[in-house]
Structure formats: structure tokens, C-alpha cells
UniProtKB/TrEMBL annotation:
GO terms for cellular component: membrane. GO terms for molecular function: hydrolase activity. Residues 75-331 form the AB hydrolase-1 domain. This is AB hydrolase-1 domain-containing protein. The keyword Lipid metabolism does not apply.
Amino acid sequence: MTKVSSLLPNVAVFGRMLRAHRGSAGIIISQRFLHDNKINEESRYIVKREVEEVRVPVPYGEIAGKWWGPKDVRPIVSLHGWQDNAGTFDRLIPLLPHHMSFLALDFPGHGLSSRIPDGMTYHTLDSVYMLKMVMQHYQWKKISFMAHSMGSLVSFIFSSVFPDMVDFNIGLDALKPHISDPDKLGPRLQKRIPQMLTADIRNRQKTEPPSYPYEELVNRLHLGSHKSVSKQAAPYLLNRNIQKSATHPDKFYFTRDSRLKYSVGVGWGQDVNLELAKRMMMPYLFLKAKHSSYYEDRKYFDEFVELVKQNNPLFELHFVDSTHHMHLTEPEKVVPIISKFLCKHWKRDPLGSE
């Protein structure tokens, strides 16, 4: 049996030991630790950067996160993709400018964050409310984003709804809510709603999900992402997404909320996306992976990009020779682009300042 720690290259494994007690929600956990991150196996250097676990109280529990860098400046809020978690940025953030702070959050039902109440389902717009709660907790007047996939959709919606609150937005591989064929919506809901109800019943039964040897979890994550998450990078996500089985000591199970698999997007059309795009006047960087799907007809992507280019001189679009999880699997390919953008547009915002 391979030890979990041996499959996490130079990363201290804390897993769920770092979960805050209910009474400590919103307080930075006192235990501090360092991550040693390699860009890849051929790298000649290791970057060290301090990171702390944090918890933000919300009505249904707490939002978990990892605060990287200085604590006296407002961090860049970093949002992960669907069924991923804050560990998705473990290989990228240590390579970005060290005088900047980053707060990588676990969305509800993901990573170490609380699940939504029983009987409810996940919706994209709920995450916009969650971000407002985070801002209220820390008493921020502004927010900055670096987000991947589903997180990038959320950051776009937030930025377009509250443009005066957003300093800049960095999106990775998901530009906007995708447009699907209208005739597919009915059959999709017909299938997903009963599936969600079944998942909700299983949650309330408190039964342990299927468990697997750790190596199989790595392989499942690798294949489930269409090989976008390499086997070498998979442990960075698994670290916040698995629990040791109580009935099978040599196995582990996924801890994310299974209701997430049956969530539904915003459902609006391209006309709404384009109207929201007109409000994106802040510095705006988007990176598209060349070896990743558009998840819709390419014409909708191109139409959106053309409008933003016409309206926002601060918009940048870069195509990266990588897959959907480019920031996790091949961070060296995105670091120069993101760092240049940050050094141009990031401004120090001391915490506690008026």
C-alpha cells in the first residue's frame, strides 16, 4: 500500500486535520506550515511560500480557504472549478509575486467547506451570494479575482453585476456561462432532478460512500478530468477531497457533496452574456487552453470576445498550449502571463484602511 504522503511531492499532508471546529469559524487556524512546490519533475528550483487555513462563517456552516502570503493586504480571491477545491492553485500561487496575497476558497460542498442544507440543490448564483458574505466578513470594499472553470464563470457574473467593486478579473478556460441547445434543457432536467433527489436522500442517510485504494482515486481523478489533471498533480486536489474509510482502513472515499454532480447552470442566453460583458470595464485577463473544449459552439465564445475587445481596452486574451487544468498541471506555462498582468494592475490595499 502506497502512503498518501509519498504521492504528494513536497507537500505536507494535513487533509481534514486542519478542519476548524464550529466555534472557531472565521478565525485563522494557528497552525502554520510551508508548502514546497515544484513546477515539474525537471525543475531546478523549489519555491517556498507560507500558507494558512482560514474559515469564514456563513449561515449554513463555514467556507474554508487557504490564505497565501502577507496577512496585512487584501488578497486576490482564487476560485476553483466544478468538483475541484482550493488545492487547484497549490502549484500556481507559490510561483506568483510574493508581495501579493491570495485567498483560495473552497466553494460550498467542495473541499473543506460546509455543504448546503439537506433538501437544497446547488446553483451558480448562490456562489455570488457567498462571495458577498466573504467580503462582508473581512469588511472589504473591493475584491480581485483569479478563477478557473466554474470559478471563472462565477467571477465573471460577480464582476459584471458589481463592476465598481472589482479591481480586476483573471479567468482560466471558462469565459462565460455556456450556451446549450434549447431542446436539450428539458431532457437534462428530467434526468438530473431525480438524480439530485436520490443523492440528497443518501446524504441524509449518513452512509459512507464507496471507497477505493488511494492509487485508484488518483487514476479516477485523472481519467474523470479527461486526463486534464495529471497523475502527478492529482494529489493536490485529493488532499482536500478524501477521507479515510471507517470500514475499510486501507481505502478512502470522496467527501465532496454528490449533489454537485446534478447542479444546473444559470440558464440564460447569449443576449444576457453580451449585456453583462458590456459592464466588464476593469482590467480583464482570460487564458484559454488550446487542448480544452469550449463547451458550446465556438461562435458564442468569439462573439463575446469581440464585444469585450471593442468595449474594454484593458482586456487581454491568451491561448495556452495546455489542457483545461493548465494552472495545476503545467503552471510554468501561465505564470509569465499572469505575473505580468498582476504587476501591471495589482495595487496594494492594506487591510484595515479606510
